[in-house]
Design a protein that fits this description.
The structure is a homooctamer of 241-residue chains. Chain A folds into two domains: 100 residues, no CATH class; 126 residues, 3-Layer(aba) Sandwich (Rossmann fold). Chain A contains eleven helices and nine strands. The first copy, chain A, is an alpha/beta fold. In chain A, the strands form two sheets. Chain A has a five-stranded parallel beta sheet, sandwiched between helices. The first copy, chain A, has a four-stranded mixed beta sheet with strand order 1-2-4-3, with helices on both faces. Helix content of chain A is 38%, strand content 16%. In chain A, α4 packs parallel to α5 and α6 runs parallel beside α11. The first copy, chain A, is globular, with a radius of gyration of 21 Å.
């Protein structure tokens, strides 16, 4: 048929229209539908904000019954209860507001290290950790090592050097990624959080700080976007798996 | 001496003060001084904005005479002329405003693919490309494939799937990284550019678009920061080299 | 009398003051009172935010008893219940938060196609759809075809090419109108939504993206303004009716 | 071949890759490449900012020698001189900073009426007018009818009612489109300009005013984007031609 | 004593310290304490936001028992009920959220005309009206005469020309003060309101519009600040009383 | 003819169209064309920014030859030279960048007092003073009395209490109008200036300060808008003249 | 061991790693861990926002049982009740939302004077006062002396001149610190508050005003950050104690 | 006379008016005129931006001939040349753009330590250093110790602990003050600089970072305000001298 297209017997428009009738999964080259349903073995991700508990359960069922896994983020308590009732083996995280359902094969060769500046950054770090686990990563943690007590971070050389990727979660002044970026050679993903008040501008201050990091090669995701950081980390560490 | 510290005979303050007199290079654990002089084989990076041509040449000399390489970014024409006069083998890029000096050993296993949305994004893409080359990467290019003519991008499946990292450079609406992020599984680094006028807000519009990308796992660097994107890409592709 | 004005026997001030005593409907040249009560056959539009259910019902009654139609937008549930109790034939839309009352004559020659990037953009799309229907248009829909899975949009060539106007509703990165604008020749109206968090800035990120669209001739309305997009579409498709 | 794809003998990735080797023009369904080279008879648009006079001339030559037309926008004086030297029949507009080259067939059935609030808005209005002419429209003008002297606008009922589309160009308070939107039933495209100082915020104040217009169905383009407004108007008035 | 100061026998510091022990009311030159307790006959103004009903009543009592008047703004319902219970003759305004207590002598020679663009601007206009009445003004009203139906305003020439000051209250596009400023010669005070959504930015869009008014000599107060507009109007119309 | 309109023999549209053919000056009720050419005796105001010297001279000639006056603002030096060459009696102000041409009859009963916080605010104060003079006011001045040396202001009680209106010009912290507003009972017009750097945000910091003034009844004009403040003052002090 | 490091027998990385195993308290040189647990005698500070009452009590217990003091800020009522139940001698401040537990030795030589502009600034001033007391300072107060009634402040010369540091708390126009900075020679710390509405931008207007203070040497902390101002004051007045 | 005031024979208004005729220097209680001419021995500060060289020289002469000192900031080269020609002993600083004239008595007991994050922050640090020297301080320096190479800062324990005040000058991510604030117990004044591009927002990103510092008690001055930081430091270290 493509030859017909090349020779002009069939217009490309017709070819494309026919092509589009094929089911979406056959249309994928590389990983076209990466965002919603990641490739075989990755979880279906359900952004629960604005969905009812039964809607979230229904979406999870669609994937899990085919043997896949699901990850629900930004869930409220009622949604977590409903998912646990339907999937008793699911793992719910109240702080990170996530629920993981179904089996996960570990694929990441090197650990994803998640660092927080303060205890208030914990919810975003938990979302990142649960998301990274759901995508098959080994996850390490380093909590409450903000730059105002820099010795706490400096004493963690081993954890820092063994990481495959570092996710740095920080609100307020957002200064931690710059320090970490100067200490490690691996990729560093900075996640600003909305922790703070007044001139923190709902996380924009930390976001701008991170984009201006004086440590070369630090990249940034949206405010409070623990899931996005985990997805970026997964793109990195499972690349050669 | 650390035992003395632990037993209290010597205060940590004194120990640290003595420790700090040791030359900086011995102080490094992991890659402490990553930003300015990257590890053995990486170039010294000279941000030329606000420096005179002779200052830039002097800094480059300091590194190059020891057998290392240097990369000057944000140079004006006079600085490029001065560097070429002193280092006849240097490679100057007028569009990207960079000069590379000294030998580079290629270390990146997989190519860094740099994509631009429009011709006006070229200067930032050139800075990214030159920086990536200076850091030992193989660099691929895909130009002028903005989303308003989406078929131009879709026809490049092979280039996209063979990349180790993709750097997407786009101004105005900054929409390209979302489309690319949906097409590839490898890491995607988005670089907003200050191309545009009015509501482009000097690149902030593109920056915010990219931070809100509906493709999971796209990370972002500062506006016009081609060098930073290259440094981030290098952290990824040379990680296991 | 105008001659008296010209000759100075009567001042223009007096003439205008008298003129203004004429009832408003006779004052209209072209469509002076377009915003609140559109010309014969168009609905009275009631922006329900900040009005009580009985106030909304009362305003609707004023128009409907004269044989006209009414459209209430931004209603809460109590208002929708009250309108349905008073006008049993009314059509309420819980997602779009609208109620249509009274008969509508279809006037639009070509369909208004409403496209959404994600499921969270649905409420704004519903407001646009209901508003467009209330103004006498034929409405088509294309849901959840965001740019991170671009093949879903590309497979809809027929729907795209047959539209008279396309309304593209998108939050987060707001990238979809640029892609659509490159695919169709008809007018494209972009509606940013407040969907997202952090750097989405309550929809401003999507708004700025759309204003910077690299597809020529895309126009934009206010954030979440589904009604406004429908009104703009109606100005276009019923122009020659 | 699509059957092979459906049956699995050939992967879609291979099919798409082959498909993409077909020349771009055959890939178009609908009007894919609308932005840069509009369909047969429309001009090639050259955004001259950041290009040298000879580059602009070269791009124009590519199109014009094939019998097409070209429109250069945001030109400086040197570029206009260079274009006139190469194409003696070209029409240059110093205020609007545009040059039109080549023949244009008038296609728009109804006139595009361009209204300005003040004399300082003239450059943007000229860019809009020249762009609209280059795209085959009939163009009308109404200058300096800002709302602080509202009677000047009100005396133009005939011009207003006969327009197919109205483009309203206004800086400072940006109030004019709301008034015009209440007077006409046809589509209204508002163009904020960067005219003003202080709290005009480079045109953002006018932009936000227009997005909040109390006249239903007014749409908006980027600040100073006269070309974009003309392109949007062209999508409307030549739709059925 | 001032001579002692001049001759140096007494330091100015001591003189000033003594001076400051005199009760505040004697310290006033001109109207020093204008903001809280306006001069004899003006009301004590109580900004009720963040105060309990009994606190507001207590403050009102302090003034009223001395024969003065009081004006409470931004009251909630409980505070209005409490004030009416204690001062049965008080005048409460539920829409404007104000309560006036005590007698007022009318001092303004010419009326303060308060104009609104839409019905949603009513609460701010009521606050302005009640405040103006409490300060001894004659108040006129013109409601719902927004610029999208400009004929409604134009028919009110008599009301406009007889005003001593005009207060124009408008949200959304904030365009009305520019039109009014072009129609009248008297002072025009513009009050932006937080009416609107999305790009109205909580009233900032209307505020910026008004600051950029193309009608010369329009002045502006803070968003939703009906009280401030009334105070400014009072400064004008009672100046020569 | 209006009777014909009322009886329906002639449509209002036709009436209005005819009415609009009358020359503008007869159309005025009240002072419709106030902004550009103020009523008999007021100057024609020429905003010189973006106009050539000869254009400014030409506009001034049009008015002055009919016995009126003209005021040019935001002039550059060449324009001032050209105006003085053509009108030897004109008064040019290099600091305020203004030129006044033609005779002025003093109309303001009470003086307009212009106060500056610092010497850098002088240009805006000069524009205000020259504009106020051109509109027939008596002008008083009080310079460099910023709040960091509050005693300088406090020693000026007589000047403050005798003013009809006070214009307060201040950049940086913009705190002066609040202090002045607490000292005088007459109208206070605050003019923020773009004096400052960094967090002064080009005058926005001072603007916001003034809008939030804790002194009741202070009104504000655009940044650096000395002319606007003078126009507002003129609306106040010449009201009853 | 440091000699071994210098001679190369032991790498610095190993030395540092060992060093970091020493307990944190011995690692401190100067006051490394200043932020959370200040040096001997300073309170443990607990930011209660987002913590449960029992969590706050538990953290306080950890410190207090060792003879130290604790300060809880941003507490809700339940937390204050829980702390008082567990520590009957604790001092709770409902307005400032703080609780102080345990003994405090007064160390500050000169008083910390806390000034407010209006009564609405009281909560932030109380947080500052309680924090300063918990850190061992003598605290003075001056309330409701905003610049609109400047004589109230000027009458307080003695309190102003005897202060060791002045903390000025002000919302709305934030003008007070400039006046105070011109009256005293000691350090002045400005605290913007989120008091106000509309153009107060949640305290940003006052923040920007203070950063632009025309009084030299005024420093600023975050919006509503009474605790931070007290900590800064403590750094100053206890420096030489 | 004050008794007359108390008894009512003389109004306070008259007393104050007379009082104000006394020369300013006698009016000072405490240090009223601190900003422009600091107390005996402090320099007159001349902000040279917008002043001609001869104006700056004239202002300096006024002070210096009376035996005082002068400090000119933000000078251009011509002004520095003019000052050196007139005052051959003056000290000009080309990087900091300052000139110090006249003798200075050292008064600060403890050194003011000025720290920079990068070499681009040097101009602001030089302005701070020269200003601190002109005000009689001992000044220490620590350059180029940004957080991306944290060991460089940590090795400077002795300099840090011996400082009386630390001024931290940093652009880009502005992270350094948080680290320094955690290492020292003395006052820390943070100066954001406009160094950077894109999301640095002309220094606003660094400013917001510093206001959100996680180290308690860090205070902030305006962007690039080296002089202000020095003035604040002087208020602290010379307080008890």
């Amino acid at each position: 048929m493509l030859h017909q297209v090349a020779s002009g017997t069939v217009t490309v428009e017709i070819a494309l229209r026919q092509l589009s009738m094929a089911p979406f999964e056959t249309l994928d080259f590389a990983t076209v539908d990466h965002h919603r349903a990641l490739r075989q073995g990755y979880p279906e991700v359900i952004y629960a904000e604005g969905k009812t508990p039964s809607q979230v359960v229904a979406i999870a069922e669609r994937t899990v019954v085919h043997g896949g896994g699901a990850l629900a983020t930004r869930t409220d308590e009622a949604t977590r209860v409903a998912l646990l009732a339907r999937f008793p083996d699911a793992i719910a995280n109240d702080v990170g507001r996530t629920v993981r359902v179904g089996p996960v094969a570990v694929k990441g060769k090197r650990p994803v290290l998640i660092i927080t500046a303060g205890t208030s950054d914990q919810p975003v770090a938990e979302e990142a950790a649960e998301s990274a686990l759901a995508m098959g990563n080994v996850v390490g943690r380093l909590n409450d090592v903000g730059v105002a007590g820099i010795h706490r971070l400096l004493s963690q050389g081993e954890a820092l050097t063994s990481a495959g990727v570092v996710i740095v979660v920080a609100g307020m002044d957002g200064a931690l990624p710059s320090v970490v970026g100067g200490l490690v050679a691996c990729p560093v993903i900075a996640v600003p959080t909305s922790v703070g008040y007044g001139a923190s501008l709902g996380g924009l201050a930390a976001l701008f700080t991170m984009l201006n990091s004086c440590a070369a090669g630090v990249t940034v995701v949206n405010i409070d976007n623990g899931f996005g950081a985990a997805a970026a980390a997964t793109r990195i560490v499972t690349r050669d798996s």
